Amino acid sequence: MKHFFTFIFLLSCSSLTQAQCEDLFISEYVEGWSNNKALEIYNPTSIAIDLSGYSLSRYSNGGVTPSTTQLEGTIQPFSTFVVGLDKRDPDGEGYEAPMWDGNVTYIDDDTGEEVTLPYNPDTDLQSRIDLFVNPTYYTGSDPNEAIANPNTMYFNGNDAITLEPLAGFPVDIFGKVGEDPGDASGWGQINNESWWTKDHTLVRKSSALMGETNPQISVFNPSLEWDSLPANTFVNLGIHDCECNPNNKLIETQNSFVVFPNPTTQSQITIRNNHEIKNVTIYNNLGGIILNQEVNNVKQLSINLNNNKDGVYLISIIDNSGIKTNSILLR
To answer: How does pLDDT run across 157-192, given as a tens digit for each residue?
Structure first.
């Protein structure tokens, strides 16, 4: 415990020297069902960075001893790199269940026949991963085996995660090291029903220009820097909008659409896109569809969200360029 508090003190001192847009940070957090676990890392600098000099660590259930995985690969300027749990065996079950790959096969209860649904890119997490890690689920107590088989990516909503150089202090801290949310199963409550860090995808706001380096925050409130999307939302992985990027406005114009007012206390919202919209679908924070509407090829439309609870909603549109997503906060 003494070692942990020394670590906290030194880490808090180091946070005073880190500047914006100068080091890597976590830009997306996927805590999906089963083994759908992924972390997106963003490079806010103008130079390529060798990831072999960095690692990810998981602090399980309020623990202070991490399970650490060294990274590998290169992350390009103003680009992302996605790390995922290495579960690709289609025959796996339980703890070895495969990460989703966009393909679904099941046995029809009525006919007993095997049915294969069309490939769905929106549920294909495997193809978005740049580095698969931690293939072995180790639950033993041998410290040498634990080091050889880290469980960094087996995180749930109540596990803190850090990104750090191999010889340095964390450049980003997700959650609160040493704190177990307990019965909450995660941090950040939504409508007294669920928790931001449990069964959700979180996307870092474009206004976030650096990672969280202060280990002494009194409360970890993910809503300050993250947008919350439904479980098993993968469509944003591999692309991140950040104000560190001098071309950020161009990226937003080409790859996304505008929803306003956002946040809002009003029942009516407006969607504006550069291309003609064909379809709009809105999901609540549990992944349920609250609206699915065909659109007659307009670039702007208004939608009424009467009788919907406060919270974050995912908006998906289809235009000639494909599927685009955005989020809105009702309060």
So the answer is: 999 999 999 988 999 999 999 998 876 688 987 655
Which ranges constitute the DSSP H helices of 150-238?
Answer: none
Is residue 171 a contact partner of residue 75, using CB atoms and an 8 Å limit? no
Q: Which CATH number fits domain 2-243: 2.30.29.30, 3.90.550.10, 2.60.40.1260, 1.25.40.20?
A: 2.60.40.1260
Cα separation of the two ends of the chain: 41
Write the CB contacts of 183 (distance below 8 Å, at least 6 apart in sequence).
none
Query: What DSSP state is assigned to residue 163?
Result: E
List Cα–Cα distances, 237 to 94, 187, 196, 203, 233, in angstroms.
Answer: 25, 22, 18, 9, 9
Sequence spans of domains, the chain: 2-243, 256-330
* Claim: this prediction has a pTM higher than 0.85: no
Give tens-digit pLDDT for 209-266: 999 999 888 889 998 999 888 889 898 899 898 989 887 643 444 456 778 777 777 7
Using alpha carbons, select from 24, 31, 80 the residue that is nearest to residue 241.
80
Phi, psi torsion values for 95, nearest 5 degrees: -65, -15
Among residues 278, 258, 255, 232, the alpha carbon closest in space to that of 122 is found at 232
Task: Decide: 4 and 202 in contact? Cβ < 8 Å.
Answer: no
Q: Any idea how long the chain is?
A: 331
Q: Which two tokens stand for residue 50?
A: 């060798």
Q: What is the CATH number of domain 256-330?
A: 2.60.40.1220
Nearest to 191 by CA among 311, 284, 288, 31: 311
